[in-house]
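Tutorial handout. Part one gives the primary structure; part two gives the three-dimensional structure as tokens.
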Amino acid sequence: MSLPLPPRPDLQDVEVVEPPHTATWPWWEVVVVTLAGFVIGVIAATPLYLALRPDTSGAVDGPGLLISAAVDLVMAGVLVLWLRARHPGWPRVLGWPPAGERIREVAVGVGFGLLLEVIGIAASIVVAIVLRSVTGQQVEDTVQVAPGLRGWSAAMLVVMAVIVAPVVEEFVFRGLLFRSLADRYGFWVGAIASAVPFGLTHVGVGAAIDLWALRLTLTIVGVVLAWVHWRRRNLLANIAAHATFNVIGVIVIFAIVGT
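Part two.
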């Protein structure tokens, strides 16, 4: 019969550090389910399209923003259902701070968002200079949102840019795709491989060189957002950073474009 060991005073205050959680989903599964969710979202939003008839000849208008938001939300819902069915530990991997730390993470995210705006402006200048030197063409700003939005259309721009896009895009590109690759192959593989499609999914109205300038700039922004997630290990800081970045863009649209 063995006697119980006496308590070890020297171990009483030792903090047990839980190892970081890693993504259980492969990157290709993220791509397949995201594309499937997008298709389902488009199908689900078809009645809205038929009812609102958005202008598809130029930059996105109010109805187009509403339809885009609906597609994004349905796609995110499909991804959540897939994660719950096949990867039940997904919330711990993506990370969400406890109640007592959420204000701090939002504040940190806002700070990163302001820094991201500076980086984005600098990146756009460098990208424009490089493209101009390579192609000999002048790079102009693209138009992503139709001018003259008023009423509910202007409100829809704010909702899409400040709430829907930051939540869905950070969930998909940083929470799922980046973590799947970075946890297996390292930060830079995950950051670049998730930032490229993030940049490519952004569209606007302009010449081809202008669109590529936008996409390259946002690819750099995507790498920085991946770094924010790698550093903070939670999506809340990322969402706050992305939302802050977009808020500044919306203010510029209202002030300069005349929306």
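Part three, for discussion. Residues 21-257 form one domain. The two ends are 82 Å apart (CA to CA).
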